[in-house]
């Protein structure tokens, strides 16, 4: 039996990662395929940004294209709420900590990532705020006190996790988010998401074919994530 793991390099504030969410959801239903999340801290530290007119203009240009290509919904609470809220901050660290904490407490990483993406891109919630993250974690069935304690503990693990993610990306020529590496029996190969955006069933079939040995992408020949597919 093939040992297969899909390594997903992502950021919770990456619009293209939100566009790719249905593909990852489809991948999660492929028999015999495990999914491991690797966060990249795209908007952490010095890259965190307060919401401004400039940020709104920049992200809306991308988000409208993502919506057109993938069919993923962007809500009024996001476009005309969060993106007009000058007191909000885009910071990847808190939602990433929430994902790491939830995983440590037994919640599937994709489940909480997709809930955070919906909260951000559809509902316009401030997912950089711990109180919001606490509420979302409790929605998923986590005990509030246990989540708060694990969230605190993960702050000490955050830099090491991100460092591993970025080293892996550099080692395998991954240029941005979202990016994928498929590990088959210990061998890694890059996969390209962009041709499958908006086509989750086709992506699942592609993965099933790879696992069944119907296709064979060599590591050196596998295409990179294109600039249009990363942000």
Overall 3D form: globular
The largest pleated sheet is described as: 4 strands, mixed
Determine the N-to-C terminus distance: 35 Å
Number of helices: 10
Summarize the helix and strand pattern as letters: EHHEEHHEHHHHHEEH
CA radius of gyration = 17 Å
Please give the number of β-strands.
Answer: 6
Structural class: alpha+beta
Helix fraction, binned, reads 40-55%
- Average of per-residue pLDDT values: 92
Low-confidence stretches: 214-231
How do the strands of the widest beta sheet line up side by side?
2-1-5-6
Strand content: 5-15%
List the helices and strands and how they pair.
Elements lengths: L3 E7 L4 H5 L1 H7 L5 E7 L9 E2 L2 H18 L5 H4 L9 E2 L2 H12 L4 H13 L8 H10 L4 H11 L3 H14 L7 E6 L2 E5 L8 H13 L19
Parallel strand pairs: 1-2
Antiparallel strand pairs: 1-5, 3-4, 5-6
Give a description of the structure.
The chain is of the alpha+beta class and 231 residues long. 46% of the residues lie in helices and 13% in strands. It is built from ten helices and six strands, in the order βααββααβαααααββα. The chain has helices at 15-19, 21-27, 53-70, 76-79, 93-104, 109-121, 130-139, 144-154, 158-171, 200-212, and strands at residues 4-10, 33-39, 49-50, 89-90, 179-184, 187-191. It has a four-stranded mixed β-sheet. A two-stranded antiparallel sheet has the order 3-4. Strand 5 and strand 6 (187-191) form a beta hairpin. Helix 2 runs parallel beside helix 10 (200-212), helix 5 runs antiparallel to helix 6 and helix 5 (93-104) crosses helix 8. The protein is globular. The relative contact order is 0.19.
């Amino acid at each position: 039996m093939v040992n297969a793991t899909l390594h997903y390099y992502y950021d919770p504030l990456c619009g293209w990662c939100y566009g790719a969410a249905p593909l990852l959801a489809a991948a999660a239903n492929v028999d015999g395929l495990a999914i491991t999340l690797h966060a990249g801290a795209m908007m952490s530290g010095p890259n965190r940004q307060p919401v401004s007119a400039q940020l709104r203009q920049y992200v809306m240009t991308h988000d409208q294209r993502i919506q057109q290509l993938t069919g993923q919904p962007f809500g009024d609470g996001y476009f005309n709420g969060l993106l007009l809220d000058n007191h909000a901050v885009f910071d990847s660290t808190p939602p990433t900590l929430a994902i790491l904490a939830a995983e440590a407490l037994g919640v599937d990483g994709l489940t909480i990532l997709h809930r955070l993406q919906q909260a951000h891109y559809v509902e316009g919630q401030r997912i950089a705020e711990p109180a919001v993250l606490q509420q979302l974690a409790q929605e998923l069935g986590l005990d509030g006190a246990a989540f708060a304690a694990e969230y605190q503990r993960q702050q000490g693990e955050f830099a090491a996790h991100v460092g591993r993610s970025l080293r892996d990306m550099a080692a395998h020529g991954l240029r941005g988010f979202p990016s994928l590496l498929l590990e088959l029996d210990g061998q890694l190969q890059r996969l390209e998401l962009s041709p499958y955006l908006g086509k989750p069933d086709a992506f699942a079939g592609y993965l099933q074919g790879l696992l069944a040995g119907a296709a064979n992408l060599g590591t050196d020949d596998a295409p990179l994530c294109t600039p249009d597919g990363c942000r």
